[in-house]
Amino acid sequence: xxxxxxxxxxxxxxxxxxxxxxxxxxxxxxxxxxxxxxxxxxxxxxxxxxxxxxxxxxxxxxxxxxxxxxxxxxxxxxxxxxxxxxxxxxxxxxxxxxxxxxxxxxxxxxxxxxxxxxxxxxxxxxxxxxxxxxxxxxxxxxxxxxxxxxxxxxxxxxxxxxxxxxxxxxxxxxxxxxxxxxxxxxxxxxxxxxxxxxxxxxxxxxxxxxxxxxxxxxxxxxxxxxxxxxxxxxxxxxxxxxxxxxxxxxxxxxxxxxxxxxxxxxxxxxxxxxxxxxxxxxxxxxxxxxxxxxxxxxxxxxxxxxxxxxxxxxxxxxxxxxxxxxxxxxxxxxxxxxxxxxxxxxxxxxxxxxxxxxxxxxxxxxxxxxxxxxxxxxxxxxxxxxxxxxxxxxxxxxxxxxxxxxxxxxxxxxxxxxxxxxxxxxxxxxxxxxxxxxxxxxxxxxxxxxxxxxxxxxxxxxxxxxxxxxx
Length: 471
What we know:
alpha/beta; Rossmann fold; 2 domains; nine-stranded mixed β-sheet; five-stranded parallel β-sheet; elongated
């Protein structure tokens, strides 16, 4: 078994600069032929009540007596509007719980609350959180600390839909506020589930929790789309994938062209149904002779372009990818992990992985075009993923209102003929702890590049989810 090391990833600053345009990325950035209608991301702005909480300035308390609350509130409002242009902020002030409750009476149309604690001991934050809407507590350091710490802990213990940020890094505040954008987009999004099986309970739970519609498409419909797919465009995609690959191993040009037609078919269906994500019961359909080509290369392209293509009709992984793509601008990588306790490693293995792990505007890592590993047919991807970077691996379970989460450091691309084509090895702190949750969560996990603990905690808090830490 060999391992291959690939490039280091960009710095946090480089990633944030690249992601500045993430909300606009999803007009399907890299259309080779430009003939098909674009797949669009919802663009509605989230309406957020921005509530500054503090007591009158003449009273002695943190930050200090006579503090210029008005100047600080103007400064923060301006920074938020500049940093989060896709959020409509409605500023207000609450000096106490009664004033907070009066704000709630007229806020039936807002999507959530940002409680910015610039002072302490108002009781306003808990009054707002208790109303049940998604609420983000932000601590203005050395000003709101005491009330933030006690109110956040109490709200989470009570199971309220609350997230919190207490950080000197402005980017952390911005990332947390963008969770409201994510929730807004999810309510107008659609997942296509291509399968011959009835929709599972996860489909209903996804709609109830996220507001995202799940629509079932049978083999007959995707095959009809495949037959109608523009073959010239399919060939252009096949040529682009071959040209971009470091090497092509097993698949013929004809097989890759079939993958191009399957990609065009999936994208056409997504545009027709106004969907942002598609998942295909690929193994059952292909093994059963009901799918003319694997969707792997199409998923690869969708994920590189800021949309979602997900394997095996796995709806939990699909909604996880959609949430995190909206939230961070980065694609997810579904895997069937292997755990090697001798090396303290988890190896994320699958036949689909993106080549732009930092988002559509980020760098591309090398990839190989291979056959699908298990049956040695069709065309799939071995992506040689960046090493030396922290990865965050997770999956949302909307029916249980939980998200499972662990982190690791990518160390190598494993070259091993057994199992799936892409194999990213990553070092974990406690590989034995990682053995504990697979019966409840299944074999799949979804891996994203970067230390994404804060955004995961934020979106989980706003949804009222428990974060289960493994590994």
